Amino acid sequence: MLSNYLPILLYLGIATGVGVALLILGTLFGRYFTRHPDDAEKRSAYECGFEPFEDSRRRFDVRYYLVAILFIVFDLEIAFLFPWAVAIDAIGVAGLVAMGVFLAILVVGFIYEWKKGALEWD
């Protein structure tokens, strides 16, 4: 019974070891490279190549978040299309119809968003 869990325990042990090793290496190298006094350019504030000139805590327009959510929705659509395309021979006509319904619902949602102006950048 324990032999069934050995690969999982081995995987968890290796993952923990790699994570701890990377944290230690990052801390050691970070301390070494940031304490050089002649490296002020690397420690300076950076925002698109020039010093920041506005408050970083300003509010974003709600359309920014709407576009982000739309991206996630259509990205998930692609994530569902890949396994479907790989297994199309095994699932047959029922899988084709199910994916057609899924894509039709997404297309209706996309048309609704387009008509409402959610994709406009004013």
The outline comes out as flat
> Can you tell me the CATH superfamily of the largest domain?
NADH:ubiquinone/plastoquinone oxidoreductase, chain 3
Order of helices and strands: HHHH
The assigned CATH architecture of the largest domain is Up-down Bundle
Strand content: under 5%
Largest sheet: none
Task: Tally the structural domains.
Answer: 2
- Specify the oligomeric state: single chain
The count of strands amounts to 0
Q: Helical proportion?
A: over 70%
Gyration radius (Cα, Å) is: 25 Å
Supply the number of helical segments. Answer: 4
CATH topology grouping of the largest domain: Methane Monooxygenase Hydroxylase, Chain G, domain 1
Describe this structure in words.
The protein has 122 residues and is mostly helical. The protein folds into two domains: 1-58; 59-122, NADH:ubiquinone/plastoquinone oxidoreductase, chain 3 (Methane Monooxygenase Hydroxylase, Chain G, domain 1), CATH 1.20.58. 75% of the residues lie in helices and 0% in strands. The protein has helices at residues 2-34, 40-43, 62-86, 88-116. α3 (62-86) packs antiparallel against α4. The chain is flat and about 60 Å long.
Briefly summarize what is shown.
This protein is mainly alpha-helical and 122 residues long. The protein folds into two domains: 1-58; 59-122, NADH:ubiquinone/plastoquinone oxidoreductase, chain 3 (Methane Monooxygenase Hydroxylase, Chain G, domain 1, Up-down Bundle), CATH 1.20.58.
Question: Notable features of this structure?
Answer:
single chain, 122 residues, mainly alpha, Methane Monooxygenase Hydroxylase, Chain G, domain 1, 2 domains
